[in-house]
Amino acid sequence: MTGVDPLAPLVLVVDDEPQMRRFLRASLNAHGYRVLEAGSAAEALMLATSHNPAIILMDLGLPDGDGITVTQSLREWCQMPIVVISARGREDDKVTALDAGANDYLTKPFGVNELLARMRVALRHATPEPQRQELLFGSLRIDLVRRMVSRDGVEVHLTPIEYKLLTLLARHAGKVLTHRQILKEVWGPGALEQPHYVRVHMAELRKKVERDPARPEWLLTEPAVGYRMRES
Amino acid sequence: MMANSESGSSLPIRRPNPDALLARIQAEAARKERAKLRIFFGLAPGVGKTFRMLQVAREAAAQGVNVLVGAVETHGRSETAGLLDGLAILPRRDIQHGNTVLGEFDLDAALQQHPTLLLLDELAHSNVPGARHAKRWQDVLDLLEAGIDVYTTLNVQHVESLNDVIAQITHIQVRETVPDSILERADEIELVDISADELLQRLHDGKVYLPEQALRAAQHFFQRGNLLALRELALRRTAERVDADVLAQRADEGVETPWRTTERILVCVGPAPASARLVRTARRLAVGLHAPWFAAYVESPLHPLSTADRQRLDAHLRLVEALGGNVVRLNGVQVSAALLDHARKHNMTRIVIGKPTHSRLRDFVRGSLLDEVVRGSGDIDLHVISADETAPAPPEMPPAQAPVHVASYTFAVAAVAAATGLAWLGRVQLPAPDTVMLYLLGIMAVAVRTGKGPSFLAAALSVAAYDFFFVPPFFTFAVSDARHVLTFMTMFVVGAAMSTLMVRTRRQERDAREREARTSSLFALSRDLSGARDEAAVAATLCDHVARGFGSAAQVVARRGAEWRQLGQTGAWQTDSGDDGLLRWVVEHGREAGLGTETLPGSRALCLPMPLGEGDRTAIALLPQYGKALDGQALASLRAYVRQGALALERARLADVVSTTELRAKTEEMRSSLLSAVSHDLRTPLAAITGAATTLREVGISLRPEQRVDLIEAICEEADRMERLVVNLLDMTRLASGQMRVKREWVPLEEIVGSALARLEVRLGARQVQVAIPPDFPLLHVDALLFEQVFVNLLENAAKYTPADSPIEISAERRPTITTIAVIDHGPGLPPELAARVFDKFVRGQHTGVGGVGLGLAICKGIMDVHGGTIALESTPKGGATFRIALPLTAAPPTMAEVPRP
Questions:
Q1: What is the rounded distance in angstroms from the CA atom of residue A91 to the CA atom of residue B786?
Q2: What is the pLDDT at residue B253?
Q3: What's the rounded Cα separation, in Å, for the pair B550 and B528?
Q4: Range of the domain at A67
Q5: Which helix (H) or strand (E) holds B839?
Q6: Regarding beta strands A55-59 and A10-14, do their DSSP bridges make them parallel or antiparallel, or are they unpaired?
Q7: Stretch B874-897: mean pLDDT, rounded?
Q8: Considering A103, A126, A149, which residue would you say is the last residue of a domain?
Q9: Residue B416: Cβ within 10 Å count
C-alpha cells in the first residue's frame, strides 16, 4: 500500500466477489482510505477483531453465513460503523441488518460517489457530535432550543409528533432510519408493527416543510426500508 | 376321418385362446414371483400336520433355504420337538393380557428378519388382544404380501364354509374359522391323512394333545362317526382343490372345458339367524359352479329393523365379505320385487332363499316372500334352503334393550286413570260406547307418546278399569253379561293394533329421518368438496365432515416413497404414538384397520384407505366419538364419505397435474422469448461498454480529454441501462413463477409517487411532472416497493416515447369501492393494433432505438394482478396515452384520526 497514509482510516471490505473487492480497493485507495479485505464471514470477524477498522462495508450474501449474523456478532462488542451492501429486492434483509445494528445500506449497483457519501456520514455519526443549537437544511431551519421550525424565514407549525419525527431524522441527517427505529423513538416500543403511523405523519410533515411533497427535497423515502434526511 | 387327420387340414385343432393363454402366463409368472402359501390340511388335531410341516421345512432348510420357525406348538411331543432342532426359532413376543403375560407370534420381528420361509402353526389361531391382527391368518396375509413363503397347518372344522356342516355333524360349534379365500390363495394344500381308527388309536395312546378344558368336548368330538365324516369332508375339500387345478391345467392346454360358466348366484340375506346358513350354502354352490355370487339385503320401509336385528344383519354381511361374496344393499317397499328386479338386471341364474319358519297365518296377513319370489322368478332357478333349527344359535349379543322408562309406564297408568276419571264424571250422561271411546283415546295418547310396552299396558289396564268401574256388577271384575266380553276383546285388540301401528309409524319416521340426514350430510359433503380446489382444501373439508359426522377428530395422510405428508386434519387431532403404525399399515395394505375392525383392533383410531387411481397412497384416520367402534351402518356411510373424498382428491390431483403442465408450457414459451430478448438487448449495452473500455485501455493516453470523458460517460450510461434491464427481467421472472412475495402495508400514494420520481430523477431531467392527489385520498394497502415499480415503469415509458417537452400528469380519484390512479402523457399515443397487446410480454413500441425488452407494462400488469387490481390503456383527449390503475378498496383504510399521537 505504497502511497497510502498509514494514519488514514482503515476500511474492512467484506464481499465474496473478488471483482467487487478489486473495484472497492482501487477507488477507496484513491480516496485516501486504507483497505482490508475479507471474503467470508469467518474472515470478517477475525479481521474486525484483530485490526479494529474504522468502518466496515458488508455484503449480505456470504459463502459461510450472512452479513446479518456477522453484524449481530460484531455489535455485541463494538460500535464501529457498518454499511451494508445488498442487491435490490432484498429489502427485508436490509431492514433486518439495520435493525440488527448496521448504520446504513447501499443498493448494488452503486456509484463511487454514493458510497463515499454514505461512508462519510457513517464515520461522522460514529464520533459524538457537539450539541447543536440549530440545524440548517437549505432554507429549512430547525431551532432545537426554542423548538421552532421555519422555512424561508416563515415559521412552520408542527404537531409535537411531527417535530419529534423531523428532529430525529435531522439529527441523523444522511443516515437511513428504518420504520421500526422511527416507531421506537417516536411512539415507543409498543407500536413497532404499525409502519403506517410513520407513513401518515411523514406525509403530513412533508406537506408542511417540503415545497413539492410529491418530489421531496429533504425528507427522502427509502422504499420498503424507511426514511433518510438529505444532508445539507 | 382318416383322410382328414392325415391331411391335418380341416380337423379343428384345439388351440388355447391366445389372450387367455397370455393372461394365464402372466398369472403364472406372478404366482412364481409372489410368496407361496402351503397349507398342511387335516381332519382333526393329532393327525400329524405339524410333524409333516416340520419334515418338509427341514428338507427345504437342508437345501439352503432360510427357514424361520414363527410359532410351532409341539405340545410336548418329543418326535415333533426333535424336528425343531437346528431350525431358527423366532422368540415369542410377550403381550400383557389382564393379569397374565401371553407369548404371541411376533409379526413385526418376523417381517423384519424376512426369512425365505416361515413356519406358522395353527392358521385358525386367534391372536391375543393387543397383537396387530385379531386372527393369525391375517398375519399370514401380511407375511405373504411382504414376500415371505409361509407353511401353516389347518384342520377341516376351521374352514369357514364348512363350519355349519361340521357343527351339524359334531354338535360342536367352532368359533375360530378361516375364510375360504385363504385356502384359495394357497399355492399348495397338502392333506395329512390318517384313518379314523388310527387316529383313535393315537388318542388312546395319549399321543394327541388336548388341553384340559377341551377334554370333555373332545371325547364327544373324537367319535368314530364324527371322524369318518370329518375325514370325508377334508378329502372332499382337497379333491375340490385338485379338481380346480386340473381344470385350470386343461384350460391351459387348450382342452375345452365340459361347460362354460355363466352362472350368477344371488342369496337373500336378512337379520334372521338362519341367514348365515344361507350364505354358506350359497358360497358352496358358487364354488361348485365356479360362479360369482352376491348377497342381497332389501331394506324396506315397511319392515324397519331393530338394533339387535341390525347387528345380526351386519354380521351376516360381514360373513358374505369374508367368504368372498359381494354385498348388495337394495331399497324397496316390496322385498320380492326389489330382489327379482336386481336379479334380472344383473343376469342372476340362481336365487338362494330361506324356507319360511313362521306360521302360515303370517303369510296370509303379510304375504309370503317365498311365494312371491317363486311366482316372479321366471327362468331363474330357486334354491330354497331350510332354516337350521337344530344348530345352536350363533352367539348373539344380548339385544340392546331399550331402557325401561318408568315415566312412560307412569304416563300409561295416568292416561287410563284420566280416561276413567272423565268417564266416571260423565257416567250418567254417557252411553257405554262413548266410555269405550274415551279409553281408546287414552290408549292412543299413550301409543303416540311412548313405546309398545306402555301401550299394551294401557290397553290391558283400560279393559280392567272399564270392567271394574262401568260394567255391572260395578267394582268387581266379574262380568254379568257375556256381551261385555266381546267389548273387552275388541277394546284390547283395537288398542294393541293401534299401538303397534303407532310404534311402527314412529320407527319408520325415525328411519326416514335418519336416512334423510345421511343423504343430506353426504350431499353437504359433496357440495363442499366441489368447492375445494386443491388437495389440501379437499382433505380439510373431508376431515371436517368426517369428524363432525362420526367422531371427534380426523386426519388425512399420504405417502410418497418414504415420505409422509399430512394433507389435512381437524384441530382436535392429537398425535399419539399408536397412530403411526396403524396409518402405515393401512396405507401399505390398502385395507381398513383400527378400532372396530379385525386388524389392530386395540387402536384408538379407525383408519380407512382412500382408493385412488393414481398418485400417492392415501388414508384417512378417525377418532370415533367416545372411543366407541362404529356400527355397520355408520361404517357404511363413512365409507361413502371416504369414497366421495377420494374422488374429489383425485380430481384435485388431476387438476394439479394439468395446471403444472400448463405452467410448464407457459414457462417454456416465456423462456424462449426471454432468451431471444436477452441475447439482443443485453448484448447491445455490453458491446458499447466493452468497446469504450477497450478503447480507453488501448489508446486512452492519446485521446483528447473530452473524448475520454465521453467514453466514460458511455460506459456509465450503458451499465445503467443494463441494470434496469436486469431488474425488469428479475421482476418478471419472479412474477411469472409466482414467487413474488407481496408485503402489503398501508402507504400514502404521495410517498409511492415521490420515491418513483426520486428514482427517475436523472432520466426525467427537466421534464414537467404534475402530480394531483386529492387531500382526502385514502392510504393504499399495497406492497410499496412493487407499486413504486409500477410508477417507475409507467413514467419511464412516458419519458421514452413522448417528446422531451411534453408534460406528464399523475392524478388520483377515489370512488366508493375503488381507487383509480392515472398516468397521462401527451405524446403520439399508441396505435390501436398495439393497444390490445401492450400488456403482453416482449411487446414494444415502434420507436426502435429506444432501449427495453418490452417487459415494463407486462410487469405493471403482473403487479396489479397480485394486488387484485387492474391496469388499462386509454387514449388521452387531444392525443397521448393514459394508463389507468384501479385498485379495489378491500379493507377500510386507517384514517389520520386513528393514528395515535402520544
A1: 12
A2: 60
A3: 17
A4: 10-126
A5: none
A6: parallel
A7: 80
A8: A126
A9: 24
Task: Confirm if A53 and A10 have CB atoms less than 8 A apart.
Answer: yes
Query: Which class is domain B22-252?
Result: alpha beta
Task: Tell me if A221 is assigned to some domain.
Answer: yes
Check if A204 contacts B (Cβ < 8 Å): yes
Buried b (16+ CB within 10 A) or exposed e, B803-833: eeebebbbbbeeeeeebbbbbbbbbbbbeee
- What is the Cα–Cα distance from A232 to A230, expressed in whole angstroms? 6
Whether the Cβ atoms of residue B78 and residue B206 lie closer than 8 Å to each other = no
Q: Per-residue pLDDT for B135 more than 50?
A: yes
Give chain B's largest Cα–Cα span: 151
- Residues A26-75: pLDDT tens digits? 999 998 899 999 999 999 999 999 999 999 999 988 888 888 888 998 98
Asked if the peptide bond before residue A109 counts as cis, ω within 30 degrees of 0, the response is yes
Would the CB atoms of A224 and B785 count as touching at under 8 Å?
Answer: yes
**Would you say residue B846 has pLDDT above 60?**
no
Let me know whether A114 and A207 are in one domain: no
Q: How far is B806 from chain A (nearest CA, A)?
A: 19
User: What are the angstrom distances between the C-alpha of B900 and each of A156, A163, A182, A225, B112?
Assistant: 22, 15, 14, 22, 67
Q: What is the CATH number of domain B265-385?
A: 3.40.50.620
CB < 8 Å from B in window 52-91 of A: 88-89, 91
Does residue A201 contact residue A143 with C-beta atoms inside 8 Å?
no
| ipTM of this complex | 0.84
Average pLDDT of the residues in B732-758 = 82
Residue B697, CB-side half-sphere exposure with 13 Å CA sphere: 7
Domain count, chain A: 2
Q: Dump pLDDT digits (tens) for B773-789.
A: 888 888 888 888 889 98
Of the three residues A126, A145, A175, the one that is the final residue of a domain is: A126
A-chain residues near B779 (CB < 8 A): 196, 199-200
Q: Which of B604, B640, B603, B600 has the alpha carbon at shortest distance from B625?
A: B604
Q: List, in sequence order, every beta strand (DSSP E) within chain A.
A: 10-14, 34-38, 55-59, 61-62, 65-66, 82-87, 104-108, 134-137, 140-143, 148-151, 154-156, 176-178, 219-222, 226-229
Q: Could you say which of B745, B750, B896 has the minimum Cβ distance to residue A213?
A: B750
What is the DSSP pairing of strand B350-354 with strand B265-268? Answer: parallel
- Domain assignment present for residue A201? The answer is yes
Q: Which cell numbers in the block locate residue B854?
A: 418490452
pTM listed for this prediction: 0.46
Residues 6+ apart with CB under 8 A from B319: B160, B276, B279, B280
Give whole-number Cα distances, B508 to B141, B305, B362, B512, B634, in Å.
Answer: 43, 9, 21, 6, 18
What does the buried/exposed string (b/e) look like for B298-313 if buried means 16 or more CB atoms within 10 Å of the residue's CB? bbeeebbbeeeebbbb
Q: Where are the alpha helices (DSSP H) in B560-631?
A: 577-589
Given an 8 Å threshold on Cβ–Cβ distance, is A195 in contact with B750?
no
Confidence of residue B249 (pLDDT cuts 50, 70, 90): low
State which fold the B532-653 domain adopts.
Answer: Beta-Lactamase (3.30.450)
